[in-house]
Design goal:
Elements lengths: L17 H25 L1 E2 L6 E2 L1 H12 L1 H16 L11 H4 L4 H19 L6 H27 L1 H9 L3 H24 L1
Antiparallel strand pairs: 1-2
């Protein structure tokens, strides 16, 4: 069959199209973001009464920087890596680890990214109070999912005392910090 005269034969080794380049950039951002979350999980911040990690902060920043869809996809990619047994979680890996006490919190990381990403998609990055409110909602949903799952394993009273109460101040601090970082970053980018 002959090619129509206006059709071009594919050129192998040609420069990728704009769509392919965009996809490559998105994949690289998701990989980098998932690595950032994994690294943040290894950083323990001395916080009273229980040390905290920076995973929530990373998820909030990724959502705010990437937007809703890519932010949630990045966190889902991170969770998939852990489910496959890669050592990306703070204290273990695999599906059995995800079904343990931290499972609800891990799934809740997507809520953090979703809330921050939703706000970013609306242009709230430069509005610290609105971004803080969205990030706080994401953190509350994350803590609620974590509490609900942990309650099924150890009971509601113990789940509150061990899994939520000690982290309330640190989660509030992370939401304040993340919203402030985004406001500064957006302001800096606009001035350039």
């Amino acid at each position: 069959m002959a090619m129509p005269s206006n059709a071009q034969a594919p050129v192998y080794g040609a420069v990728p199209t704009e769509g392919v380049m965009r996809l490559v950039v998105l994949v690289l951002l998701a990989i980098g973001g998932s690595l950032l979350i994994a690294l943040a999980g290894q950083i323990k911040v001395p916080f009273y009464p229980v040390p905290a990690t920076l995973q929530t902060l990373a998820c909030l920043l990724i959502g705010a920087a990437f937007g809703l869809r890519l932010g949630v996809a990045t966190v889902a990619f991170y969770l998939a890596q852990g489910a496959l047994g890669l050592p990306v979680f703070t204290g273990g890996a695999g599906l059995a680890y995800m079904a343990g006490p931290t499972g609800g919190f891990l799934i809740g990381f997507m809520a953090c990214a979703a809330a921050a990403g939703w706000a970013a998609d609306r242009g709230w990055n430069a509005r610290p109070m609105l971004m803080f409110a969205a990030m706080l909602v994401g953190s509350i949903v994350m803590m609620t999912l974590g509490f609900a799952w942990l309650s099924t394993l150890i009971g509601a009273d113990k789940a509150w005392i061990a899994g939520v109460q000690p982290f309330l101040l640190s989660e509030l601090t992370k939401a304040v910090l993340a919203s402030g970082v985004m406001a500064v970053a957006v302001g800096w980018l606009r001035r350039r």
